[in-house]
Amino acid sequence: MKKIDFTYSAATIQRRFSLIREVELSKNWYQILLDEEFSLMVIAEKLAMPNDRHKVIASLDLVTNRYWETEELHEAGAIRDLMDNSVPRRYRVMS
Q: Is residue 63 part of a domain?
């Protein structure tokens, strides 16, 4: 597998991201950052490298596909079927 290095400048982090939390992993400090405009969450090293960039170790795209809001599914009554089939029996509300 090819590794691709990904970094953000300190200015970009300050401009685009909100700090959610700082965590220590294996004696290194990381920041969990949220970009609300692009629905993106990243974990980046807290300390910048000598070139004033922060290395990203993980990212998560938070965009969701809201299939339950489509008019076709709502009209066809498919939402109830999807819910009934996806919820484990022990968590179902008996009606």
A: yes
- Which residues share a beta bridge with 54? 8
- Residue recorded with tokens 């009554």: 77
Report the SS3 class of residue 37: coil
Distance CA 9, CA 4 (A): 16
pLDDT tens by residue, 49-75: 999 999 999 998 887 666 656 666 555
Q: Contact at 8 Å (CB) between 30 and 46?
A: yes
Q: pTM of the full predicted structure? A: 0.63
Q: Which amino acid is at 9?
A: S
> Identity (one letter) of the amino acid at 4?
I
What is the residue range of 82's domain? 1-88
d(CA 79, CA 31): 38
Q: Does residue 95 sit within a domain? A: no
